[in-house]
Amino acid sequence: MKKALSFDIGGTKISFAIIDNKGNILNNIEKISTPNTKEDIYNSLKNIVNKYKNEFDIITIATAGAVNNENTKILSSTGNLPVGYNEIDFQSLSIDKKVVIENDANCSVWAEYQLGSGKDCGENIVLLTLGTGVGGGIIVNGKLLKGKSGSAGEMHFVIKNKKRACTCGFYDCYEAYASGNGLKNTAREIYNESTITTYDVINDVKKNDERAILALNEWQHDISLGIIGLVNIFDPNCVILSGSMAQFIDYKKINNFVNNNIVVQKTEIKKGYFDNNSGIIGAALFGFDKLKGED
Amino acid sequence: MKKALSFDIGGTKISFAIIDNKGNILNNIEKISTPNTKEDIYNSLKNIVNKYKNEFDIITIATAGAVNNENTKILSSTGNLPVGYNEIDFQSLSIDKKVVIENDANCSVWAEYQLGSGKDCGENIVLLTLGTGVGGGIIVNGKLLKGKSGSAGEMHFVIKNKKRACTCGFYDCYEAYASGNGLKNTAREIYNESTITTYDVINDVKKNDERAILALNEWQHDISLGIIGLVNIFDPNCVILSGSMAQFIDYKKINNFVNNNIVVQKTEIKKGYFDNNSGIIGAALFGFDKLKGED
What is the number of other CB atoms lying within 10 angstroms of the CB of residue A282? Predict the structure, then answer.
């Protein structure tokens, strides 16, 4: 039985746990706030590694941002993390254990593919993490889609001509509409109020507020537009929606709408099984697969 | 030296030639008009096969429409070909030679990847065929992207909210803007004339007509929007533009615009090397690879 010390590093918090090669979380998942400097992030990780040093065979890290094809380092700066985060020498966290890094959405799809909602689905899967932003993890013929440098799966493709600014510097990207922030901005247009939050919309939907329902429907419609495109491009066995916003999707409705408007064979849109734990579990499973490759 | 009798079956014509395993066309490319019924298509192919029966080792077919993962048959009806085209029993064209079928855009990207503009580019390539419609052929880690059933690479993803109808039954798809028909429809909006053809626009551009230049620029901008999305999704080594409309692209301009607006590492957008012969050449090369797999 192999064990991983697995981290999920995001803009606001770092989660970690010991995970075995069946994907079981052996202790409770612990969480700390993400420190504000790259040095403090490194030192926090190092302290955790030292604390658990006799309890794992491999260190695995799910992280925001693009990771190289060798799974050793982060390729470029990532918006929500401190300047220089990509320069952290993760490999030096252990002198004798392997350190495997992968993008968080890629880890999520790996967890879902191996043990979750995508387990019996097939070898071609598209996963979207719907949170503050939108991430993408894609499995093609049983392997992670990484591209020439490792950054594949970025959900920045234009879906409208409304000139809504996107975090990437461009405009009208899928992320600008399908994310939690996208719902917020769509609601602000509908309410004609500039202070509405995503939380307000969700709350107002519960109160049957017509504007909130309209915003949520438009948000789901926008999500489905992107899914239609991705399904036509990848012809996947299934599409998995993960992340904090995936619970607000009407899966019956979105399955009907997408399947009625694609040109490829029918697919299935499902909610992720592991919810917010897919990152640490997926990183661990992916790391174990890398160890296996070396045996 | 292996030889293929290779066909490219489109809505208006069928091209064919004998091609060796270096991709050389050994005789002239011959062309016939595509017959109007599935029976006549089959009989035409059969006559050609009989005529050349001692001159080839394999029959290869590039075709409009989606082809299954076993490369034996067409999955569903395709708009520009006669009803029942997908029911043709291509395997019965020869009793002793293998018959390998693949989608025409997939054949094109295979030709470009093996011997054309994508030869020294890398293992991840996106190819777009810009003709009356838009086709897509994608190479991931040196293999054709086929998806669960074989239909992957369909360029039907929404890029606007203008409600322009698409051939697929949906609206605002990339094909509806980036194709030759897309240019025509964009020009009709700009000219405010419902009879303008793609040919008129190209002719008017040569005469420095401002409306035509505006339409061509908008068409190229729309093409680049889709390329930005595809590059962010696939992180490809290069993007190849093929088909009859690829000659009207300003490659310097589109390279600058795309590379300034992607979130992944820089890529290169190139014109295809084989132009309209990439289908028959790619089908042949793909077929030879299948033969090799069986040796």
Answer: 35
The first and second tokens of residue B43, run together, are 């009989």
Q: Is residue B113 part of a domain?
A: no
Chain B contact probe: residue of A163, A234, A259 with most B CBs at under 10 A: A234
> Would B116 be classed as within a structural domain?
no
Query: pLDDT tens digit string along A92-112?
Result: 999 999 999 999 999 999 999
Phi first, then psi: give them for residue A141, nearest 5 degrees: 50, 40
Minimal-distance CA residue of chain B relative to A257: B170
B94 and B143 in a single domain? The answer is no
Pairing, β A98-103 against β A58-63: parallel
**Helices A210-234 and A251-260: angle between axes, nearest 10 degrees:** 50
Q: Is pLDDT of A79 > 80? A: no
C-beta of residue B45 within 8 angstroms of C-beta of residue B7 = yes
List the domain range (segments joined by +) for residue A20: 3-108+276-294
The pLDDT of residue B293 is above 80: no
Interchain contact B159–A (C-beta under 8 A): yes
Q: Do residues B101 and B127 share a domain?
A: no
The answer as to whether B115 is a domain residue is no
CATH number at residue A282: 3.30.420.40
A208 pLDDT tier (thresholds 50, 70, 90): very high
Q: What is the value of pTM for the model shown? A: 0.96
Residues A34 and A70 placed together within one structural domain of the fold? yes
The 10s digit of each residue's pLDDT in B11-66 is 889 999 999 999 999 989 999 999 999 999 999 999 999 999 999 999 999 999 99
Q: Do A233 and B162 touch (CB under 8 A)?
A: no
B265 at A interface, C-beta within 8 A: yes
* CA distance, residue A95 to nearest chain B CA (Å): 31
Dihedral over Cα of A168, A169, A172, A176: its sign? positive
Strands (E), B201-261: 238-242
CA distance B258 to B163: 25
Tokens of B283: 């089908």
Residue B108 · residue B274 · CB < 8 Å: yes
Our CA-based measurement puts residue A123 at a distance from the nearest CA of chain B, in whole angstroms, of 7
* Whether A151 and B264 lie within 8 Å, measured CB to CB: yes
Give the pairing type, strands B125-130 and B30-33: unpaired
Judge contact between B145 and B234, C-beta under 8 A.
no
Restricting to B residues 160-219, those with a Cβ less than 8 Å away from any Cβ of A are 160-162, 168-170
Pairs of residues, one from chain A and one from chain B, whose beta carbons lie less than 8 Å apart: 144
